[in-house]
Amino acid sequence: MKYQEKDLHQLLSYYAYNYMRIYTKTIEHTKSSKKTYAQWLHPDLVGVYFPIGEWETEILDFGVTTQSGIIKLYSFELKRQLTYGNIRESFFQAVSNSSWANEGYLVAAMISKDDDFKTELERLSSSFGIGIIQLDTTDPDSTEIIFPAKPTLNWDWDTMNKLAKENPNFKKFIKRIHNDFNSKEIRKEEYDKVPDADALKSFMSRKCRNRSQTTDSDFFLHRLEKRQDPQLSVTKPIRAK
Questions:
Q1: Total domain count for the chain?
Q2: What pLDDT digit, counting tens, does each position of 221-237 carry?
Q3: Burial, 227: exposed, middle or buried (Cβ in 10 Å; 0-12, 13-18, 19+)?
Q4: pTM of the entire structure?
């Protein structure tokens, strides 16, 4: 695995926008005022769907007046991979930091193909309502929802208020939604940038290539150190053929 977790944000934003009609916003954990429990407080990305441009203005306003829930909020917890080694911690992290949203998702680029693992993943998803998305790092349009999230109608206002107090990214996200809905115009530049598919493929290919070169270089230097200093290893020194 040659990419980092942050490299996957664009993949998720692309899928969320093109296939779920969701505008995403990255939440930077380092900006939280209390970083010690930030990973359990807020997700990696948040998202919003509102039918601006799809519905008539009068219907939008009526929907808000009647509190019909026409605005939907989403929570995304992102991991590079899901295996037996991290599934429970990752899953309950997603559960913990998505209670405020209408739908919560656990997202990963690599998910174990083991049949027993998939059965456990499905059980957890069904029991706690967390959806599972598998990203495709080579073809963004092949990303898919493996298990859908179980929608909730109401927001957890207390948790949302706590998030807004702790993290400026989330507070700005909520304010942006309010402003966009009032103006009936979505300011796309205020949300995460959504690259096109070709640019995304090029980006991921470059990331994987750069990481691969770094890994190969580090491996060579490590082997060289072993040959020069036998105290670093008990293995036999490298011999030229």
A1: 2
A2: 344 333 444 433 333 33
A3: middle
A4: 0.81
